Amino acid sequence: MTDYSQLLGPEIIAFIARTEACYPNDAVDRSIEEQRDVYNAMCKVFHAGRPEGVTASDDALQAEGRDIPIRRYSPPGTQGKALVVYYHGGGFIIGGLESHDDVCAEICTLTGFPVVAVDYRLAPEHIHPAQSDDAVAAFRLLAEEHDGPVIVCGDSAGGTLSAAACHALRNEARAPAGQVLIYPALGGDETKGSYVTHANAPGLTTADMKAYNDLRSGGRKITGDPAFKPLMDTDFSGLPPTVMVSADCDPLNDDCRNYRDALLAAGCKAHWVEGKGLIHGFLRARHTAEPAKAAFGEITNAIAALGQGAWPY
């Protein structure tokens, strides 16, 4: 059994204790409503506030007869030319505009780019492909109204949706100019590698992932669909410059390496930052743990570079 007391530093161990005080390990076994209540309460505890000067306003996109709620963040002063579209994490069943409000506001001020958070439909009320359909539809509408490059970004389930959108949109005139994926779930083999080594990691377990996938799929077995798991694709050509930041003590860690390798083999630009001594969900530790702060710096630097058309890797 993996000894996380040896792999993780005291700041991350303290972060785990604080997280578990808000969101116990058995939360995934509770009803969907209870999970959402517990998660929303935890996000309020960890909310770091918005940086001074960032403004935010709620709106909705009209897509194929449905509303997709969004929140628009504007940085203080002159805005950069790029737009960041952010898809939140939460296993496709929890999270929304409030859960990642401070993260989006900080990305906005640190990059100087406006950010739009997308509140896609959640499972199990809406099963696949509802989430990826919303991600793609939101991107198209936002890209249509923005005169400049558009970068997609997301954490965990939001990383899945960012990549899914890139696969779906790569041949369109207004495709993503880049993607930044934060500990994404990309659909690796759950019988090997980090899915086994870190099957019972703090923050996320392999069993949790299977439960989330079952809820998102409605219990169906889905194969060959990159909108569900991007690593299911057979063609990785034409995808935009991609930066991934993972946590090494996370079942999903190998997904980033495998996705990077697939992109590089297809002639795309891809860079993977393996966050040492980090666990899934480390974004909430970015103000209290140095390794998480450094990883968040990698994330915002990547967004800033891609938004400027640069590739410093």
Topology:
Blueprint: H1 4-7, H2 10-22, H3 32-46, E1 55-63, E2 66-74, E3 83-87, H4 101-111, E4 115-118, H5 130-145, E5 150-155, H6 157-169, E6 178-182, H7 194-197, H8 206-217, E7 242-249, H9 253-265, E8 270-279, H10 290-307
Parallel strand pairs: 3-4, 3-5, 5-6, 6-7, 7-8
Antiparallel strand pairs: 1-2, 2-4
Helix pairs in contact: 5-6
Cα end-to-end separation? 35 Å
How much beta, percentage-wise?
Answer: 15-25%
CATH architecture: 3-Layer(aba) Sandwich
pLDDT < 50 stretches: none
Number of helices: 10
Structural class, by secondary structure, is: alpha/beta
CATH class: Alpha Beta
| N-to-C SSE string, H for helix and E for strand | HHHEEEHEHEHEHHEHEH
Radius of gyration: 18 Å
CATH homology-level superfamily: Alpha/Beta hydrolase fold, catalytic domain
- Overall number of domains: 1
CATH topology: Rossmann fold
Widest beta sheet: strand line-up: 1-2-4-3-5-6-7-8
Helix content: 25-40%
- Count of extended strands: 8
User: What does the average pLDDT come to?
Assistant: 96
Main sheet: strands, sense, barrel: 8 strands, mixed
What shape does the CA trace take? globular
